[in-house]
Amino acid sequence: MSEMLSRRNMLSLLAAGSASLFARDALSDEQKSFVPKYILASALYGTMDLNTILAEVSKISAEHIDIWPKVHGNQREQIKEMGEDAFAALLKKHAVKLGVSTSYGLGPFGLKDELNFVKKFGGSAIVTGTPGGDVASDNIKAAMKSFLEKMKPHADAAGESGLMIALENHAKALLNTPDSLRAFADLNRSPALGVAFAPHHLHPWVAEVPALINDLGKANLAFVYAQEHGKGFMEKLAKADEMKQMPGFGGGLDYVPIFSALKKIGYAGFIEIFMHPTSRGVPILPTAPEITAAINTSRAYLEKCAQAAQ
Questions:
Q1: Whether 270 contacts 99, CB under 8 Å
Q2: How far apart are CA 260 and CA 164, in angstroms?
Q3: pLDDT band per the 50, 70, 90 thresholds, residue 33
Q4: Which residues contact 216 (CB under 8 A, 6 or more apart)?
Q5: How many other CB atoms are found less than 10 A from the CB of residue 129?
Q6: Which domains, from first to last, does the chain contain?
Q7: 3-class state of residue 96 by DSSP
Q8: Residue among 71, 79, 57, 44 nearest 276 (CA)
Q9: pLDDT digits (tens, 9 = 90+) for 89-118
Q10: Does an H or E element contain 166, and which?
Q11: What is the pTM of this model?
């Protein structure tokens, strides 16, 4: 298989999804189902300049940007280099709002300065991870309780700033398995602490994903990735196989029950169409227009799933 998608194949994929892109507009209010609120991940564009990326936000029917740092992108570093006034001017130029800062490198206990940055620009959340180390199921509640105790001052600081800390369920981390997610839901008492829900890291338990959304509930769900495991994302693959992480590119994840579960709990937060290229930090496709077109192919597929959500 060719390493890169041919332009003909890409156009075919885009055309397949575009017919349904705006189908929801023709439905009555009673017929409308779950309505995704999209946010654009800067990391999908690798290390392209922020001015270029911000111009793409409105093209995916979004208003908000999720700013990523190295190694997945470098837009947070670009902001530090240009200064916050210049960043504010770029946001104004493109009529874009900061929604999220993704800050895995800072960890859950090192977010003080980033909370100030996100608050200054009117964002709503920081996405980060939990400490590493798989924990056996019979010990998970004790480990989660200890972690949440340590998080109290950080969650309180986020709440005082009107922000949320969204913790991604990630392989080889405390928040990882279905049991750990349920333990979080049972023990979390902070309205400023939630889960950045990542279905691609729940591949071994994919049948449980809708139930896990229900178990977490609206109060514990802070952010949702529209990303699937596909053919995997840890090793170099042919581009067509790598793209199967994106919704609607043949990865096989059914978003109808996922959106039905999100609708049931009243989730109204961000949904981020995402994938991991290999190596990290490169754009998922060669040019910004191609990347945006791929996102819109995924969005067209997700719109169909949203219409079918019960």
A1: yes
A2: 24
A3: low
A4: 181, 184, 185, 195, 197, 265
A5: 21
A6: 33-130+137-308 (3.20.20.150)
A7: coil
A8: 44
A9: 999 999 999 999 999 999 999 999 999 999
A10: strand 164-168
A11: 0.88
